[in-house]
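Reading a protein record of the kind used here takes only a little practice. These numbers are not coordinates but entries in a learned vocabulary of local backbone shapes. Here is one such record, which you should read through line by line.
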Amino acid sequence: MKKTIKVHINRNNYDFEDEVQTGQSLKERAGIPLTDVLFYKQPKEDAIVLNDAKVILKEGDHFYSQPAADYGDEGDEKWPAGSRRIVQPDGWHFLVLDEFDLPEPYVPRKVKLLIKLPPLFPDAQPDQMWLQPAVVLPGGVVPRGSASEPLLGETWQRYSWHLKPGAWQPGISDIWDYMRCVRARFERRD
């Protein structure tokens, strides 16, 4: 007799005979809509499990789900003018502003800005930002905390920059709050 593996999905117990499962098979077993986001509880940061991702179950694993974030309709006033959202297969959305103005002394002064919105945005906060083309400060100095990174088939300048604890209030903060923080980062001119 094969031993079953007991796991927890949305606080309910399920026994599986096969340790190899997919996000879809876990959702189907627990009656979770395939459009919801499935999370695999981890010690530091929980992992998103895509529908086609394989998972090796271990006794006592915990999973939970949330409906995908509602980003509103195109042209909704809650988004910056001239922005577009690009849906990613893992549930993230990339918000791209094709014309973002930087203060002096950054060169160039007009760039594209990309912000990654997590699947549970606005309850989950965005983190970091990306510019294209890469910018420099006087003397060709590269801004602090920046590095090149490929995204969307292009090279972007990533800023390893994070909000201070408590700066994002789930259920209260929105994209405009994050945009104010992004502007404040560039006003430091470093």
About this structure: DSSP finds two helices and 13 strands in the chain. The first strand starts at residue 5 and ends at 9. The chain has a mean pLDDT of 88.
